[in-house]
Amino acid sequence: MSKTTERIEEERQHSKGQVFLFVIFIPTLFSIALIYTILTVADINITEKIKTASGHIPFVASSKEEKNVEEQAVQKSKEIKQLEQALQEKNEKVHNLMDTVNEKEMAVEQLQVQVQQLKEQLKEAEANKQEQEIKMQEVVNTYEKMTPKKAALILSELEADKAVLLLEKLKTDQRTAILEKMEPAVAARYTVLLSEKVSEEVE
């Protein structure tokens, strides 16, 4: 009796399994395959639809959002590093330009100092020249008041360049009178020097 009951129970379990397999699983699988085939023939992207549908599932959607956030964070981090590097390069260029500008300003200041010094030296030279001309004119006036003979004696004792300079400043008639009172050799030498000086001034 017990064996019969066990056999009946086993047959029932096999019957349930067969019913599930033939009545539920196989028809469902066939239906899914048929629907997939029909939709594929109808040019509907089943894979994309499944992905879209899965995006609305809370867990799947949140996982994708977290992944997107992480990717965006990585991208933003790269962009920030690139911007920081670009900013550093710009700052270095600005610093170099500032150094160049400072060097140029220092060079300009030095040139301005040199120009000012040259102006002062020129002004001083002009003042000295005017003073020398005044003194020379005073000496010339002294020689003009002398007699030609006395002037000739004094000029003959001076250095040639100084004597020629004084003779050049005198009026033509006074210079002629003085040269006439000099010894011929001295007068001839001074006359040659005067001619050479006139030629140099003309050139």
Automatic annotation (TrEMBL):
One Pfam family per UniProt: MgtE_N
UniProt keyword list: Coiled coil, Membrane, Transmembrane, Transmembrane helix
Domain of life the protein comes from: Bacteria
Residue span(s) of domain Magnesium transporter MgtE intracellular: 117-202
SUPFAM superfamilies, sorted: MgtE N-terminal domain-like
Transmembrane segments: 20-39
Coiled coil, from the record: 66-142
Protein name, as recorded: MotE family protein
